[in-house]
């Protein structure tokens, strides 16, 4: 079972202070850059690391932008990918961490979930929204020619995650409402899934018992 705890920027600093981490690629959205002043918050940590940012532009994880991010990562060769954002940001990071651009017929293999899954980059995921659980799942969504596809493999799952309440609470009412409906959707899907078990059903039922208290 995944242990969930509430974290802070001090926890983030402690994690990133690891001597084995010298180059950090931060994947984020434009709203995270502006809304939470992300670059300033990272600078305040005084990590003394080589840090670069890739700010995604698409609202949904798009194949063409995925290729751009993967090329950017391959040129930089980070010791860690830090994904700070919503589900799209985290999905990008998860796929980038396993994607080999030299693989033949890459687009078709992504569509059929048949790529050569091999972990290249370590991922720390920090969500700025709630509900999707992208920071702990072993699947990612990608849109190819405006059609939604899913990649699923154990290597896609982020290596670690942090939950920093400040990053979620500063979201707009629209984002918060979206997160609430997302949580409900995920709970329904979990209950109907062929892979459901007593533990997943327990958490799904808990969502329905508490959703009104949280989002009222």
Description:
The two termini are 29 Å apart. The chain has 216 residues and is α/β, with parallel strands linked by helices. α8 runs antiparallel to α9. The protein has helices spanning 9-16, 30-35, 38-44, 63-76, 87-96, 106-111, 165-169, 173-192, 198-215, and strands at 23-29, 50-56, 80-85, 123-127, 139-144, 147-152, 160-161.
List keywords for this structure.
alpha/beta, Rossmann fold, five-stranded parallel beta sheet, two-stranded antiparallel ribbon, 7 strands
Topology:
Layout: H1 9-16, E1 23-29, H2 30-35, H3 38-44, E2 50-56, H4 63-76, E3 80-85, H5 87-96, H6 106-111, E4 123-127, E5 139-144, E6 147-152, E7 160-161, H7 165-169, H8 173-192, H9 198-215
Parallel strand pairs: 1-2, 1-3, 3-4, 4-7
Antiparallel strand pairs: 5-6
Strand content: 15-25%
Text of the CATH class of the largest domain: Alpha Beta
User: N-to-C terminal Cα separation, in Å?
Assistant: 29 Å
How many domain regions? Answer: 2
> Biggest β-sheet: count, sense, barrel?
5 strands, parallel
Regions with little confidence, pLDDT below 50 for 5+ residues: none
Enumerate how many helices there are, as a single number: 9
Number of strands: 7
Give the CATH architecture of the largest domain.
3-Layer(aba) Sandwich
Return the string of H and E elements. HEHHEHEHHEEEEHHH
Under CATH, the topology of the largest domain can be stated as: Rossmann fold
Average pLDDT for all residues: 88
Q: Sum up the overall morphology in one term.
A: globular
Over all CA atoms, what is the radius of gyration?
17 Å
Strand order of the largest sheet: 2-1-3-4-7
Specify the structural class.
Answer: alpha/beta
């Amino acid at each position: 079972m995944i242990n969930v705890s509430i974290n802070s920027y001090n926890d983030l600093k402690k994690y990133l202070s690891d001597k084995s981490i010298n180059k950090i690629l931060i994947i984020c959205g434009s709203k995270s850059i502006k809304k939470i002043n992300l670059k300033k918050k990272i600078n305040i940590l005084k990590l003394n690391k080589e840090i670069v940012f890739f700010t995604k532009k698409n609202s949904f994880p798009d194949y063409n932008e995925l290729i751009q991010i993967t090329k950017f990562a391959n040129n930089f060769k980070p010791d860690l990918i830090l994904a700070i954002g919503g589900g799209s940001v985290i999905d990008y990071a998860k796929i980038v961490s396993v994607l080999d651009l030299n693989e033949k017929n890459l687009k078709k293999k992504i569509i059929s979930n048949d790529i050569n899954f091999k972990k290249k980059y370590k991922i720390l995921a920090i969500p700025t929204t709630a509900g999707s659980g992208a920071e702990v799942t072993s699947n990612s969504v990608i849109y190819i020619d405006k059609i939604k596809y899913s990649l699923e493999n154990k290597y896609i799952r982020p290596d670690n995650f942090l939950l920093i309440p400040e990053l979620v609470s500063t979201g707009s009412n629209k984002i918060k409402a979206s997160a609430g409906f997302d949580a409900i959707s995920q709970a329904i899907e979990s209950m109907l899934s062929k892979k459901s078990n007593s533990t997943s059903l327990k958490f799904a039922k808990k969502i329905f018992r508490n959703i009104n208290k949280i989002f009222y």
